Amino acid sequence: MKIERSPRQTPEGAVQSSATAGRRPSAPGGLERMVWEELAPRLLHPTKLAFIRALLESGEPLSSKDLAEAAKIAKGHADYHCKRMLMAGVLVETIGPRADREGEEPLYFFPDPTESHAS
């Protein structure tokens, strides 16, 4: 899979529709802010949002156990969400040492946007 640049879909970089083209951007706290801060998160599963937050905050690959703790869910559920996020190309998997130094385990992180990834 190749990661390509796409327009930012955030309050600061949202694509203008023909209905909003030419109009001044809404003030902070306006409709766009409400859409991105209140409505858009309803489209994403709270567990996936918790994983994204944990990975961004850690700055390093995390195990499904770490992600389960961050989301306050069972490890089996974390494994399921990790697999779904892997299939969607949101996460990349590598193998690394376990925290208890007893063997290895999968670790998850975001793909490098500067590299081409084959699917």
**CATH hierarchy, class of the domain at 31-109:** Mainly Alpha
Strand order of the largest sheet: 1-3-2
What's the N-to-C terminus distance?
Answer: 4 Å
The gross shape turns out to be elongated
Query: What structural class is derived from the secondary structure elements?
Result: alpha+beta
Largest sheet, if any?
A: 3 strands, antiparallel
The CATH homologous superfamily of the domain at 31-109: Winged helix-like DNA-binding domain superfamily/Winged helix DNA-binding domain
CATH architectural designation of the domain at 31-109: Orthogonal Bundle
Mean pLDDT rating: 79
How many strands?
3
Summarize the model shown:
This protein has 119 residues and is of the alpha+beta class.
What's the structural blueprint in terms of helices and strands?
Elements (H helix, E strand, L loop, with lengths): L30 H9 L6 H13 L3 E2 H8 L3 H13 L4 E6 L6 E6 L10
Helix pairs in contact: 2-3, 3-4
Explain what you see:
The protein is of the alpha+beta class and 119 residues long. It has a domain of 79 residues: Orthogonal Bundle (Arc Repressor Mutant, subunit A), CATH 1.10.10.10. The protein has 4 helices and 3 strands, in the order ααβααββ. It starts with 30 loop residues before the first helix and ends in a 10-residue tail after the last strand.
